[in-house]
Amino acid sequence: MPVKPEILFLFPNHATGHFSHCLGTAYIIAYLQQEGVSAEQFYNYKLLTIPQITDKILSFETNIVGFTCYHTNYFLIKTLCRHLKKRKPGIFIIAGGPTPTFSDRAVLHNVPEIDICVRGEGEFTTREIIEHLKRNRIFSSIQGITYRLNNRVIRAPDRPLAQLDALPSPYINNILNPADIINHGEEIPVITSRGCIFKCTYCNCAAISKHTIRYHSPERVAAELEIIHNALKGKQARAIRIYDDCFTLSNNRTEQICNYIIKKNLNLNIAVSTRADYVNEKILRLLYKSGVKNISFGIESVNPKTLFRVKKIRLFYKKIDRFRPEKRFLDKLKLAVALAKRIGFETEASIILGLPGEGVKDILRTINFVKRLGLRLCYCNYLGIYPGTELFRAFKGDKLKASEKWLRIPWHKLFNIPILTNSNIAAKKRINTFLCNAFLMGFLNIRSFAHSLLFTDNNAPFLNELQDITPVQSILFLAQYTGRHTVQGNRKIKIRHTRLGKILGLGYQNNRIDYNMLKNYYPYHEVHSYWLNQFKFSDIFLNKGSTSRNIILDISSAARMAEFEKLLLNMPELAGRIFSNKISQFTLVDACRWSRSCPAKNLSRLIVDKKLRISTCFHGKIIGKLGEPVEKIKKRCAGYIQSERKKRGCEKCPVKDYCSQCPFLGGIYPETFCRIKREYSARIDKFIALMNLKNAVNLPPG
User: Fold this and answer.
1) If you compute the radius of gyration of the chain from its CA atoms, what whole number of angstroms results?
2) What is the arithmetic mean of pLDDT over 398-416?
3) pLDDT tens for residues 58-103?
4) Please, are residues 287 and 262 in contact by the beta-carbon 8 Å criterion?
5) What does the pLDDT average to over 563-574?
6) Which of 308, 421, 416 has its CA nearest to residue 357?
7) How far apart are CA 607 and CA 611, in angstroms?
8) What's the whole-number mean pLDDT along residues 444-455?
């Protein structure tokens, strides 16, 4: 029988929902196994819901789990911890990584399910925690941890940094299988050093190693690469990524590693990151000869003043000196990229949008500079002010140590900034619904997604699960009831949907929405709802009873068609009344069917009811259920639309090019809809345009 692990490590990927390989975790497992402690890492590459993942984790029957926690996956981990503790109250949860290192108080304050935070490196600390748990001892003698004791948060002294070659290798000790990693489409991670000597004000990774650097010996690095080479024989070449912050910081050591690779005749495809001021032609040619095919340069900004301000270039800051070192760095960057491209490298770079003191013109300057370099890929990052950095200390000091605000994925509201088509942000936009797919929709193996997803009930399944998850879904919609109803006859009208991104004040370019902010959604909607009351057209234009500033007009039912037709006959008078009216905004219920395009026809919107059944319109036919293959749903929807078009004779209709050809008319008779559309097509367009214009000149507050 397999041995149950004493501890199970987990590294959830915030972008896909997968639990993937983690090199830092593998180092800890290698050390624990060397010390006689059984440990495993949890892997999962299927798209599962939170409860399903909880079941899989608990199937290992371990009493201790350890999460690798970054700002990006913090809220996902928070949700998982809640589910784990609910299902198994006695499970002991450890959190390590950059976020627990610098935001330990915030983590323990906001996630009561987490029992202890490991700060800094985790090998020795984790072993001591496990030994103390076995002997039922308190943790007071363990360095590098933060924990609770008698309702107090105790922060132990920092642990000294380890000598790297004293730690066993995850590859030499068979913790990581290179073939298994590439079979899952991942790059094979390698580190040859830990730490960074530079003091960039925005970086908290270098702060973990206190701005020092420690190296593995060239012999150790070569031994690991040889194991990887042997494991990949006969397989398609995949990238090995060396995650050192600056691989070429020591030219002499870089030469030794490259010469070992060449001497051993290792056939590898390696990617490295470095700085333009730490390469030369000799080093670049040697790197390429040894198998480095991809090289990434850190740029951040091309404004010398900004580079000086964020301490990107200099180790010592005595005087500004007209930013000469920063200007030399930019000159070297252009030369290094051009030389690397001539040699044959795939070149990449990274920039940061929104650095302190930069405006739109500065950012555009950086983007245009990068365009001229002709890179294969540019990593566009939005500035995040992370605890542990000089930026954070300058902005907030220690005042908000327990706040989750600083743990949210950062976004920057620079709405007019063009995004490079070969940037990582452009790539994320192409896959920006993966986590929604994994934890919300349940569709498997699909390449296209609906732009909007609406739930018709606050209590719909998954919404509770989403409270703390951070999907990368840029234009997600939610249908929510506000509890406000109006009564017309025996019919209750319920407010049906609104755009979450707009309610939360996010721009369309934000490719992450923090679902923890859903908690702020409900009160905001109550105050700023655009749809507060419904009135008859005649009452609205005569100002009878219309005290609300925002009015919804219903042109979606058979009972309204006669009145709608009268208004279309009196367009000149209608225009004057609309603009002389004191009401701020008009919203047309289901106006899309009277426009030129129907959003339901191409599955750009999905509506989900309590039973998780899917339609593409509030009046639409049920075309499937969450969890069904999307291709079946598309086929079913297309068949219904084709059938409706055939019944109505849309192909021969004289206004077919000006009609939405809406297949979901609700309570409107098809004959009535088609007649009005044929007779008043131009007037309907003007009517909707007038409403939109009225709304544009009278935008509501907020």
Assistant:
1) 30
2) 57
3) 999 999 999 999 987 887 788 789 889 999 999 999 999 999 999 9
4) no
5) 76
6) 308
7) 11
8) 45
Whether pLDDT at 449 is above 80: no
Mean pLDDT, to the nearest integer, of 668-675? 90
**Which percentage of the chain shows pLDDT scores above 90?**
40
Q: What integer is the mean pLDDT of 290-300?
A: 95
Q: Are 663 and 641 in contact (CB under 8 A)?
A: yes
Residue 333's nearest CA partner among 363, 307, 359, 360 is 307
Is residue 277 within 8 A of residue 315, CB to CB? The reply is no
Question: Distance of CA 344 to CAs 287, 332, 350, 395, Å?
Answer: 11, 18, 20, 43
Show the tokens assigned to 487.
């009564």
Question: What distances in angstroms separate CA 46 from CA 179, 274, 335, 442, one per listed residue?
Answer: 19, 34, 44, 10
Whether 490 shows a pLDDT value over 60: the answer reads: no
Question: Which run of H or E residues covers position 215?
Answer: strand 213-215
φ/ψ bin of 222: left (φ > 0), alpha (ψ from -120 to 50), beta (otherwise): alpha
Token pair in block for residue 166: 């004293």
Strand segments (E) across 387-526? 452-455, 477-478, 485-488, 491-494, 498-499
Confidence at 558, pLDDT banded by 50, 70, 90: confident
> Which amino acid is located at 702 in the chain?
G
Please give the Cα distance from 474 to 606 (Å, whole number): 15
3-state secondary structure of 382: strand
| Average pLDDT value for residue range 473-486 | 33
| Whole-number pLDDT of residue 695 | 60
What the block records as the tokens of 499 is 């755009």
Residues 6+ apart with CB under 8 A from 130: 6, 7, 32, 37, 64
Using CA atoms, how far apart are residues 618 and 317, in angstroms rounded to an integer? 62
Task: Please state the pTM of the whole predicted model.
Answer: 0.68
Dump the DSSP string for 278-332: G--HHHHHHHHHTTEEEEEEEEE-S-HHHHHHTT-S-S--S--GGGHHHHHHHHH
Do the bridges between strand 452-455 and strand 188-190 make them parallel or antiparallel, or are there none, so unpaired? unpaired
Do 502 and 466 form a contact (C-beta atoms < 8 A)?
no
pLDDT at position 293 is 94
SS3 44: strand
- Sequence-separated (6 or more) residues with CB below 8 Å from residue 549: 583, 584, 585, 700
Average pLDDT on 102-128 reads: 95
What are φ and ψ of residue 214, in 5° steps?
A: -125, 140
So what's the pLDDT on residue 553?
62
Amino acid at site 415: F
Cβ distance 193 to 23 under 8 Å? Answer: no
Q: What one-character DSSP code corresponds to residue 121?
A: -
Q: How far is it, in rounded angstroms, from Cα 26 to Cα 508? A: 38
Rounded Cα gap, residues 695 and 174, in angstroms = 64
**pLDDT attached to residue 452:** 53
End-to-end CA gap in the chain = 61
Tokens of 461: 């399944």
State both tokens at 436.
Answer: 């929604």
Rounded CA-CA distance 480/206 in Å is: 44
Single-letter code of the amino acid located at 597: S
